[in-house]
Every structure is written in C-alpha cells, then in structure tokens.
Fold:
Amino acid sequence: MNLTRLDKINYINIALIIISTIVALYLPFELFLFSYAILGPLHYLTEISWLHNKQYYTKKKYDYILLLVLSALIALPVIASLFNFKLNISGQRLNQFIYLAVVSSIIFVFVQKTTYRILAFLFAAITLKYSTHLFLLLSVFLPTLIHVFLFTALFMLYGALKTRSKSGYLSFWIMMLFPIIVLSFFNGPASYKISDYAFSAYKNFEATNFFTLKQFTGLDMTNGQTITNNIYFSSQGIVVMRFIAFAYTYHYLNWFSKTEIIAWHKIPKQRLIIIALLWLMALAAYAYDYKTGFQCLFFLSFLHVLLELPLNVVSIKGILSELFMLPTSTINKKST
Structure:
C-alpha cells in the first residue's frame, strides 16, 4: 500500500495518541509537568511565529494587538507575583477580558467593515456583564481543556474534511474515543503514587482538576484537605489527571508532528535563533524552580491561547462549510 505524505503524518499522530495515553495512564502528573515545561514553551513560540506569518487569520493586519493587550491584562497578577507584589484583579474582571477576546476573535474573522465592527463591539460591551454566567466555560475550561483537546480535535477534523482523508478521519475519531475509553477503563490509582516533586510543582494547575471534579463527580470539594485528597489520591482524581495529561501532551505533539505540512519552521534564520534562545531560557526557568517557570511563561502561554482564537473560529467555520457544502465566500458575505 502506497501511503501519501498526509497519510503517514496521520498514522504518526495515531501512534502519538496511543503513546500519550499509555504514559498518561501510568505517570499522569509527571507527564503533564514534563510536557508543559519542555514542549509547551517551544509550542507557544513557534505557533505565535507561524500565526504572525498568517496575519493571525484576521481580516485586518493589526487586529491581534487587542488580543495581545487582553493577554497582558490577564497575566498581570501572575507577573506581579513573580516580583513578590500582590495585584488584585477580580476573577470576574479577568473573565470579562477572556469574553472580550472570544467576541473580538469572532469579529476579527467575520467582519471587515468598520461600521459593523463598531456595532459588534458595542454588543460585546452591552453583554459584558452577562459573561459571569460563563465563568466555568471561559476562565476554567477555554484556556485549558477546550484549547488543548477540543480545538485540537476540531483542527484535525477540519483538515480531514478538506482533504477527504480516510486516515485523517481515523486519527480524529481515535483521538476523541481512544483516551476516553482507555482512561475510563482503568478506574483507580492502582499502584500509582504521585512523586513528591510533582505534588509540589502541580499546585499552580489545580483549578482545572478542582472544577472538573466539582462539576462532573459527586466528590466533596468543600475543604482544603478533602480537595487535596480528591485531586491527587482519589480514583476520580487520577482519571481526570490522566485525561488532562494526555490532552496537553498530545496537543503539543500534534503541532510538532505536522511541521512539514504547517511549515512553521520556514522562517528567517534570525527569528529561528531567537525562538531557540527563548526556549532555552524557558527551560532554565523551569529547571531553577517550576513555580518560577510557570510565572515567567504565563503571559506567553495565555497569549498563544488568545492569539489562536481566530484560527479556532476559522476551523469551526470551515467545518460547517464542509459539512453543509457552503462556500467560504457565502459565509463571509452573510456575516458582514
């Protein structure tokens, strides 16, 4: 059987899905921390560079600046903590910033004319106060599991639909079903016990586990010791962490596996050197202290999430276009 380049990449991705799932099964916290610190920063840097070359998939050249500013505002408390300075910005305010980023990304993709943009932003301002009802969706799951799992899956589905690739469809469904089936089947910690280093280093990421367990299990998440036990030592907590570890690890691996197709590496040599140096600095920060690395890289991490939102919108629009056989121009015309 002669495999095309695309088929080979899709089958590589299937292998990466399986490998990520198996490692997440046995070392969930450790795998997440490794992937987040080693693969994460290189992913942020290379994807932002690639998105810059694509004009961030927005209608106008400088649309991305608003997303950059919103990322900076969201990251301010973490940046301040790096210098032992406490900056109080309410969770509601941070949630509003994310809401604005989402609405802005939709506007940037669909709306060209300034008049319509003004009206759209007025709508965003009027509805801003209602974003509180979307706290879990926007502040907890969008920058985490929605970004690394759902948007990655949608990007894969869009690619499969565009190319009508059977191996692409296969990789999409394996990503959606394989980890959920496997990780759910192994329903307990078994012999796994989190390492002391991982227990200490993971503290900055507990919110995703906390809200996932609170919303989707019957576990008591009302006091400190119970919360800790449920996140790190309960059967449900381990299953949740296995899925988180898989989702993040494969999200990064999927990006790098498609280098030949996406061609993010085809950039000026000077920029490539800068990316390499910044990545080495990120590794040094995490090696010095994991919390310090997290604080140093938080802005870059959140920036890549928000800058990717227009691409996520484009992917969803493309999927709808492929499924309902609507030409892209028709969608754009209707939206403006």
